């Protein structure tokens, strides 16, 4: 899917590249337009049509056999119900928490892993490794590790005399526990992006500042941090979108529980779908779509301001 | 008008692409036993029918025994099994396969309230004319009908109760009597707590969320004994859990056992198997649970099957303490898409499942925990204690089908809401109101009168 989607984009870019030379007369690309046909049809059938029809079904009561137009009723239900409102709030908390931690930890690890330390290549792969593991696998593993009575974490804590909490069974802790696992799994990607960003900073700036007697902290604050801004923008955007639509780890670890304490929009949508409320769950997807758009579009504008 | 057609077109395209994925996903996960498919159409000597069933170990073993027995009795028919996950994921597979006309020739699905959600009148073949239909248990027959009053489901397995599984040695050691009222139950529980010895008076297992609902679902017999027309009024949106004292009691009981500190220490993370093991070995004394779950005791705690008994969840009135029963949680159905020779073979298969021979085959794999669903079948004499206790309620006429067999209205989030009460996040009263709200979505989805 991803590759077919990017094809027309690539063609467009290539086309616009040549127009700058030939002027406004006629946009003449190196490739004929019918190249777009095959990916275009796939994109239309598997992306545009389902997206548009999901907007329609979000206004209906739909049981897969028949649908009935009910206007905004689904949206009213969605925002009136406590469980769904908890889900909405948790989604934002989860996204901000995981995104924030990934930025801070990713930056810290990248600084460490670009400095001259032993086994740097090995450590880089160790940090990145969790990204490659299936989210469900990670979720199930940590569920076992975090079991309040039998899990490795609490039995280890008990050895040193600490009575560990119910990581996933305590309603006020469950969401944070899952978010921490998400950070553990995802921080590798943020680190790699930051490493790329840090490596591209020209060494002269640091050398010049060092000659002027700048401390390590000053180097970081006034040179590394501002010059790594494009990397920060990428990390925030990616991790925030990922956090807002996260579902897999949460479902594998708590299924939104205990009660509704760790429900996010993703898990709420899935539960409505499971219950057979197809119209309502489609409305939830539309809400998620709007939420991501409303948060991420202005944010990326702001993060990338003055770049072009 | 044209606009609606266009929308329909879009909808159909979206549905086809969505269900194609689901169907592909489910066939990939099925057992590799579809070898019979190829020989089906060819010679005409044998007919092959497909059979879709839940994938849990007990059901798979039961299915295997049933099919083996059926095939040796009917050499002309081959049955090939396909499995699906249970619970809500399974619901979706059933719904999408029915919607796309891709259903197996015979399939297992819930009866009671969930049956209405798959529109039996529209999608299934009526079975009223079958010879076994007149021999069905009345409760089972009533809960396997469509809104048109026709019978769609054939029997498989046994009925069972939903009440409190209790450890008989613990009860004997402390000289406790079976409680008939909630106050007696609480008094017993306190005695168990005071006796110490690490025995948890009440076992709860929120690690497997559905197990949390028993205090509410299993209490329905008491609700109906006190308010006989509750189910009708509930379906018509004239009575609900928050405004009916007897119905609210179920939620209050969860809160009471929690507040009194009667629960096992690991209640928040324990699973059904942990709970069954605890009540079988006596580390827990009482476990509100479905009687059917007791079928697995022999695997979890060998030799302890007869250490566990069952009593009805107690209510206000000792003289009206009935057992809430599940007259089978599922039935066998034939979709309208099954036709010709396959339809005849499918009907033959269901008729076999309803016969004594078929009934006996199904209990080989998992011991019965209640009476059969067809009067044509009789239980063997050496059944478990839970089965005997359940049978006693049936024989005395003290068995009331659960609310889900009396009303199509059941909210999907009851288990989470019960856990909210059990973990102290919500009060019983608030939880009952939340559940009433949850139920409204289901009623509206089913287009019931009185809910818009």
UniProtKB/TrEMBL annotation, chain A:
Q: Does the keyword Membrane apply?
A: yes
Q: Where does the protein end up?
A: Cell membrane
Q: Which GO terms describe its cellular component?
A: plasma membrane
Q: How does it sit in the membrane?
A: Multi-pass membrane protein
Segment Disordered: which positions? 1-25
- Enumerate the InterPro entries for this protein: ABC_transporter_permease (IPR051393), MetI-like (IPR000515), MetI-like_sf (IPR035906)
Please provide the Gene Ontology terms (biological process) for this protein. transmembrane transport
The question of whether Transmembrane helix is a record keyword is answered with: yes
Q: Which residues form the signal peptide?
A: none
**Which ranges carry the ABC transmembrane type-1 domain?**
88-299
Give the PROSITE patterns listed for this entry: ABC_TM1
- Domain of life of the source: Bacteria
Q: What is its main location?
A: membrane
Q: What keywords are assigned to this protein?
A: Cell membrane, Membrane, Transmembrane, Transmembrane helix, Transport
- Where does the chain cross the membrane? 33-59, 92-114, 126-146, 173-196, 277-299
PANTHER family hit by this protein: ABC TRANSPORTER PERMEASE PROTEIN (PTHR30193), INNER MEMBRANE ABC TRANSPORTER PERMEASE PROTEIN YCJO (PTHR30193:SF37)
Query: Of which family is this protein a member?
Result: Belongs to the binding-protein-dependent transport system permease family.
Instruction: Return the protein name.
Output: Raffinose/stachyose/melibiose transport system permease protein
User: What organism does this protein naturally occur in?
Assistant: Microlunatus flavus
Q: Organism classification, top ranks?
A: Bacteria, Bacillati, Actinomycetota, Actinomycetes, Propionibacteriales
From TrEMBL, chain B:
* Signal peptide residues on this chain, from the entry's feature table: 1-23
Kindly state which keywords UniProt assigns to this record, in alphabetical order. Answer: Signal
- Pfam families in the record: SBP_bac_1 (PF01547)
Is Signal among the key words of this record? yes
Protein's recorded name: Raffinose/stachyose/melibiose transport system substrate-binding protein
Species: Microlunatus flavus
């Amino acid at each position: 899917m991803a590759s077919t989607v990017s094809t027309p984009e690539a063609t467009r870019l290539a086309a616009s590249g040549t127009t700058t030379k030939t002027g406004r007369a006629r946009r003449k690309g190196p490739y004929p337009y019918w190249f777009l046909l095959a990916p275009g049809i796939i994109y239309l059938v598997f992306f545009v049509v389902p997206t548009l029809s999901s907007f329609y079904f979000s206004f209906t009561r739909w049981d897969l056999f028949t649908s009935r137009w009910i206007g905004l009723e689904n949206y009213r239900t969605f925002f009136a119900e406590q469980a769904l409102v908890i889900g909405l709030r948790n989604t934002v908390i989860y996204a901000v928490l995981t995104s924030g931690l990934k930025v801070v930890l990713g930056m810290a690890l990248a600084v460490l892993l670009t400095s001259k330390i032993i086994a740097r290549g090995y450590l880089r792969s160790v940090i990145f490794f969790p990204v490659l593991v299936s989210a469900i696998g990670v979720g199930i593993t940590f569920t076992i590790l975090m079991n309040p009575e039998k899990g490795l974490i609490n039995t280890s804590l008990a050895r040193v005399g600490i009575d560990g909490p119910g990581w996933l069974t305590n309603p006020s802790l469950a969401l944070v526990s899952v978010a921490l696992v998400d950070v553990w799994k995802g921080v590798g990607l943020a680190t790699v992006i930051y490493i790329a960003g840090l490596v591209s900073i020209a060494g002269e700036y640091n050398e010049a500042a060092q000659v002027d007697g700048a401390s390590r902290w000053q180097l970081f604050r006034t040179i590394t941090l501002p010059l790594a801004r494009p990397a920060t923008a990428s990390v925030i955007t990616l991790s925030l979108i990922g956090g807002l639509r996260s579902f897999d780890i949460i479902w594998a670890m708590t299924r939104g529980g205990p009660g509704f304490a760790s429900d996010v929009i993703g898990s709420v949508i899935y539960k409505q779908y499971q219950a057979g409320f197809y119209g309502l769950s489609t409305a939830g997807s539309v809400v998620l779509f709007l939420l991501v758009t409303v948060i991420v579009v202005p944010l990326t504008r702001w993060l990338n301001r003055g770049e072009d | 008008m044209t606009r609606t057609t266009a929308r329909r077109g879009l909808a159909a395209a979206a549905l086809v692409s969505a269900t194609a994925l689901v169907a592909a996903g489910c066939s990939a996960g099925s057992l590799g036993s579809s070898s019979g498919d190829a020989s089906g159409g060819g010679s005409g000597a044998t007919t092959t029918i497909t059979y879709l069933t839940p994938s849990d170990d007990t059901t798979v073993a039961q299915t295997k025994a049933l099919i083996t027995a059926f095939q040796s009795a009917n050499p002309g028919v081959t049955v090939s099994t396909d499995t699906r996950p249970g619970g809500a994921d399974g619901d979706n597979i059933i719904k999408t396969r029915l919607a796309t006309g891709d259903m197996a020739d015979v399939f297992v699905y819930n009866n009671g309230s969930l049956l209405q959600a798959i529109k039996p009148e529209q999608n299934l073949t009526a079975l009223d004319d079958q010879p076994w239909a007149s021999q069905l248990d009345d409760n089972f027959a009533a809960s396997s009908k469509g809104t048109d009053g026709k019978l769609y489901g054939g029997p498989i397995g046994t009925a069972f109760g939903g009440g409190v599984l209790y450890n008989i040695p613990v009860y004997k050691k402390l000289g406790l009597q079976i409680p008939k009222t909630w106050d007696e139950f609480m008094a017993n529980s306190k005695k168990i707590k005071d006796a110490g010895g690490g025995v948890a008076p009440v076992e709860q297992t929120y690690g497997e969320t559905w197990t949390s609902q028993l205090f509410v679902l299993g209490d329905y017999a008491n609700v109906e004994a006190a308010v006989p027309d509750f189910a009708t009024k509930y379906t018509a949106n004239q009575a609900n859990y928050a405004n009916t004292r007897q119905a609210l009691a179920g939620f209050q009981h969860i809160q009471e056992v929690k507040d009194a500190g009667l629960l096992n220490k690991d209640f928040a993370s324990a699973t059904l198997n942990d709970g069954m093991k605890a009540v079988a070995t006596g580390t827990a004394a009482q476990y509100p649970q479905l009687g059917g779950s007791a079928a697995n005791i022999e695997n979890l705690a060998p030799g302890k099957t007869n250490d566990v008994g069952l009593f009805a969840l107690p209510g206000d009135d000792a003289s009206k303490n009935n057992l809430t029963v599940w007259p089978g949680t599922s039935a066998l159905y034939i979709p309208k898409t099954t036709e010709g020779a396959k339809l005849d073979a499918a009907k033959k298969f269901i008729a076999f499942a309803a016969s004594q021979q078929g009934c006996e085959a199904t209990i080989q794999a998992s011991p019965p925990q209640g009476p059969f669903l067809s009067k044509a079948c009789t239980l063997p004499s050496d059944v478990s204690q839970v089965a005997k206790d359940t049978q006693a309620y049936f024989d005395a006429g003290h068995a009331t089908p659960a609310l889900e067999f009396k009303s199509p209205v059941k909210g999907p989030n009851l288990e989470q809401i019960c856990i909210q009460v059990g973990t102290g996040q919500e009060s019983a009263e608030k939880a009952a109101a939340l559940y009433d709200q949850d139920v409204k979505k289901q009623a509206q989805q089913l287009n019931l009168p009185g809910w818009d």
